[in-house]
Every structure is written in C-alpha cells, then in structure tokens.
C-alpha cells in the first residue's frame, strides 16, 4: 500500500508516512578538477574520469618532447606547439588532485590508423579479399607505432599479434570470424569493423592504411577550448584548468563557461596561468581582463623534468604559467573549502622567475597568485582576481559549498505541502547542514529562517533567508613588542 493516502473507500486501516524529518544533506564534492587539452591518443570530445597519472598516460598517451617556439616565425616551417593534456595532468596529479575529468580537444579532425586483414597474400592485394578491418581505438599519431603481425600456417589457427612499446596482444582463430571476435573482445589497442559475411577463407596478410593516423590537432584554440569546456558543463567539477594556454588567450572563453555553469547551479573556479613572467607584460595581457571572483591567475612558470628527455644530461625544461596553474589547481583540490592556499607548499622543482619583494607587491596589487621560494615553493597569498568581497579563494569556496548544500537539502521539498510543518522540516534540514559547517569551521555563525506569507503559499513559494559569516584566513600577523 502506498505511504501517501489517496482515497479511503474500502474499510481498513490507512497509514500515511511523512518522512520530511529524515531528509538531510549528503556528501558534497569539493576537489574535482576538470581539464581540457590536446593529446595524441584518447577519445576526442569525451569526458574521461581519471584517478592517477598512470591512467592519464594509458588513456591519452605520453606527452611529446617540449619545444620552445622559435624567435623568428618561418612561414615555410611553422611551429607546432607541444601537446598539452598529459603534461597538464602530470602537474595536476603532482599537485595532489585525486579525481580529474579530462577532455581531449583537437584542431580539425584527426584520423585513426587502420589495417586491412585480407585472405590473399600481400603480393596479390585485392579489395574483394578483405576479411575485416582493424582501426585504432582513438584517432591520432600514437597508433602509427603499432606493429601488426599475422602468422597463418596452413591448416592451423591464425595468430594476430599487436605490439606497441611494452604492450603486446596476441589473438588466435581458425576462421576470420573467430579471429575478429577474439580481437574485438580482448584488444585495448584496436577495434574491429567491416567483418565479411558468409563462408570466408582464412586470413593471409595485413595491409596497413596508406594514410597514417593524425594529425593530433595540437594547434587547438579558443573554439576547441569552448567546445571542450561544454562537455564539462554538467559534470561534478569544482576547479577548471585549460592545458597549455595562457589567460590572455582563453580568459574570455573560460569566464563565459563560469558564468553559464553558475547560472546552471554548477559553481566552479578556474585556475589560469599568466602569459608572461614579466610583471609589466602580465598586467597588460592578463590582468587587463578584469576582476572575477571565480578566476585565479598564477605566476610565474615552473621548472620541471620532461619525461620525453629522460636519459639526457639535462631533462629539466621551463614551462609557462599554464602548467604552474595546473600544479596550483591540484594543490587546491586537496584542501577543504575553508582552508586557504596562502603559504601552502606546492610540489614544484623550481620557478622560472624569482620575483623581488617589490615585484611581489606589484603582482599582489593586481590580484595575481604568486609562487615564491620560501622553504621550498609556496603560494604567497591565495587570492582570486576579484577586487571585491571574494578576494580570498577560501571565501569563494565556502559560499559555493553552502550554495551546493542548500540546493541539495532543499530540492527534496519541491512538490511537498507548503505549510508550517513542512517548512519547519525544511528549516531543520538546512539548520543541520549549516551547523555542520560551523563545526567544520567553515562558518563562524549563521542565521536562518524559512517563511511564507499566504500570498506566497498560493504561488508555491517558500522563502529561505540566510545570514552567513564565513571564516577568513590569517594573512598578516602584527606583533607589538613593549620593552621595559
């Protein structure tokens, strides 16, 4: 029998259960990071959830060798920027991120490498002899290095071997259908398509596609970034990073994304890197974008070992501010909303610039989050680019946490009776959540009221009025010494 009484016609006992008093606020994610960038492997335009850097390399492939742009632009030999996604993920996980929503973006339409499995020997190619086609799991140049070998002795099952670096896959089948089925079920490198129907002869040769996989679309710009961020719009993301691109290039695109997601109830922060370590150029290119309580601008760049240079005498390279932003975003993801980034250490080997005290004051005056050398590498002051109420990152995160909790707590009451009993239950739910924030030291205090006039009851409105007192961090310690 339903727990809500609809009608009482037949004699009997009818019980109505009112469960409003058991509604509470569940867990709220605060450290999920969303990132977009270019890679040579992995699905394009699809969100992939990662929990470690090893998963990142497995999904999107290793990054290429870091190359600085030439001083003189040569139109005959245009500079191709390095791939950004895996390198950015390296810094995110190095910073401490544990859950990352990654989207591969690409300029153009990268092709996937493919191979035809044929019944005729390689010396006698024929389109009519195609038994099935192998296609790399994802587009890009990564699959061009796959070595496909076929061993088909007469009267015995054929064996197909796929080798990529240290990864080796082997499949066997007496017929083309059996071999294709084994590859389709077990391969992590290729997919199977165009399987011939009917009675087919055994496979005899492998014919690679004359067109190699790729290009990787490394020159992705703001259009591709906007598309990638669109895939993250409905994900449970709290912090957003754009791989390899500076604030001056993508700030407008990212701010539009932040505005949209805030209007949709998916509040988040963006951490972007400065375009230059030089303060004057930084102020002109990046700070001129204006203040925003959801935007964090990081400087300077950082020095890190390049995995693509492993074994060389000097594997360290200088990375721009976009990668320092990823490191800071990873560190921010480890902190509770009310814990400030100020004076927190980050796992950087070195910085590309060691700012003087005067330069640090300049940068802080322009709301730039500065990294400094102080018993390692530390955040000088955890600030957004906002010049108003949300200068401290922690205050912005506390308010976003409160908004998420109130939304989760209030949504189950939509459609319930708008009377004193239900409004009291709603108040109790929100009161329990906010008191928890006080115990967790996110708030120093709050006031809460849930009301509705008769006119508001008629229009279906319950009015929740809240006064929150967020916790602020200590930025300065002033000491007065009195000597006698």
Explain the overall architecture.
The chain has a 9-stranded mixed beta sheet with strand order 2-3-1-11-12-13-18-19-16, with helices on both faces. The protein has a 4-stranded antiparallel beta sheet with strand order 9-5-4-10, covered by helices on one side. The protein has a 3-stranded antiparallel beta sheet with strand order 6-7-8, covered by helices on one side. Strand 18 and strand 19 form a beta hairpin. The mean pLDDT is about 90. With about 475 residues, the chain is an alpha+beta fold. The longest helix has 20 residues. It contains 11 helices and 21 strands. Among the domains are: about 240 residues, Rossmann fold; about 100 residues, Immunoglobulin-like (Sandwich), CATH 2.60.40.
Mean pLDDT: 91
Number of helices: 11
Poorly predicted ranges (pLDDT <50, ≥5 residues)? none
Report strand order across the widest sheet: 2-3-1-11-12-13-18-19-16
CATH architecture of one domain: 3-Layer(aba) Sandwich
Rg on CA atoms, Å: 29 Å
Secondary-structure-derived class: alpha+beta
**Terminus-to-terminus distance:** 83 Å
What are its keywords?
4-stranded antiparallel sheet; about 475 residues; 9-stranded mixed sheet; 11 helices; single chain
Entry summary:
The chain is of the alpha+beta class. The chain is built from 11 helices and 21 strands.
Secondary structure elements and their pairing?
Layout: E1 33-37, E2 47-50, H1 53-60, H2 85-95, E3 100-104, E4 114-118, E5 130-136, E6 147-151, E7 158-164, E8 167-173, H3 176-186, E9 190-193, E10 205-208, H4 222-232, E11 239-242, H5 247-263, E12 269-273, H6 279-285, E13 295-299, E14 302-305, E15 316-319, H7 321-333, E16 345-346, E17 350-351, H8 357-365, E18 369-373, E19 377-379, H9 393-410, H10 420-439, E20 443-451, H11 454-458, E21 463-470
Parallel strand pairs: 1-3, 1-11, 11-12, 12-13, 13-18
Antiparallel strand pairs: 2-3, 4-5, 4-10, 5-9, 6-7, 7-8, 14-15, 14-17, 16-19, 18-19, 20-21
Helix pairs in contact: 1-2, 2-7, 4-5, 9-10
């Amino acid at each position: 029998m339903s727990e809500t009484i609809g009608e009482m016609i037949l004699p009997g006992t009818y019980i109505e259960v009112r469960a409003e008093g058991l509604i509470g606020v569940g867990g709220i994610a605060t450290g999920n990071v969303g990132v977009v960038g270019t890679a040579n492997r992995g699905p394009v335009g699809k969100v992939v959830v990662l929990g470690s850097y090893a998963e990142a390399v497995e999904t999107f492939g290793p990054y290429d060798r870091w190359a600085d742009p030439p001083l003189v632009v040569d139109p005959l030999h245009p500079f191709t920027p390095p791939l950004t996604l895996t390198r950015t993920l390296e810094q995110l996980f190095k910073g401490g991120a544990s859950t990352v929503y990654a989207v591969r973006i690409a300029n153009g339409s990268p092709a996937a490498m493919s191979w035809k499995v044929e019944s005729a020997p390689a010396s006698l190619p024929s389109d009519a002899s195609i038994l099935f086609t192998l296609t790399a799991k994802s587009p890009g140049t990564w699959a061009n290095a796959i070595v496909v070998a076929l061993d088909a002795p007469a009267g015995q099952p054929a064996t197909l071997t796929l080798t990529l670096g240290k990864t080796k896959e082997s499949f066997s089948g007496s017929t083309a259908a059996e071999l294709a089925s084994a590859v389709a079920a077990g391969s992590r490198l290729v997919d199977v398509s165009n399987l011939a129907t009917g009675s087919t002869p055994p496979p005899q040769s492998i014919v690679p596609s004359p067109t190699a996989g790729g290009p990787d679309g490394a020159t992705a710009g703001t259009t591709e970034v906007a598309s990638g961020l669109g895939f993250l719009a409905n994900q449970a993301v709290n912090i957003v990073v754009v791989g390899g691109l500076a604030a001056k290039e993508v700030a407008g695109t990212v701010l539009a994304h932040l505005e949209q997601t805030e209007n949709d109830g998916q509040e988040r922060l963006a951490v972007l890197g400065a375009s230059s370590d030089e303060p004057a150029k930084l102020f002109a290119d990046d700070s001129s974008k204006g203040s925003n309580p959801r935007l964090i601008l990081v400087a300077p760049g950082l020095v890190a070992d390049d995995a693509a240079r492993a074994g060389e005498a000097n594997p360290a390279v200088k990375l721009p501010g976009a990668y320092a932003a990823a490191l800071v975003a990873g560190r921010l993801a480890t902190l509770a909303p009310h814990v400030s980034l100020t004076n927190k250490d980050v796992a950087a080997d070195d910085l590309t610039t060691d700012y003087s005290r005067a330069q640090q004051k300049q940068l802080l005056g322009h709301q730039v989050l500065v990294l400094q050398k102080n018993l390692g590498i530390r955040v000088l002051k955890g600030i957004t680019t906002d010049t108003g109420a949300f200068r401290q990152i922690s205050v912005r995160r506390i308010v976003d946490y409160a908004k998420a909790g109130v939304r989760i707590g209030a949504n189950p009451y939509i459609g319930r009776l708008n009377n004193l009993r239900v409004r009291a239950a709603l108040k109790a739910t929100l009161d329990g959540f906010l008191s928890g924030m006080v115990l967790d030291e996110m708030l120093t205090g709050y006031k809460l009221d849930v009301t509705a006039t008769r006119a508001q009851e008629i229009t279906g409105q319950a009015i929740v009025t809240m006064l929150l007192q967020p916790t602020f961090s200590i930025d300065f310690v002033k000491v007065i010494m009195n000597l006698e």
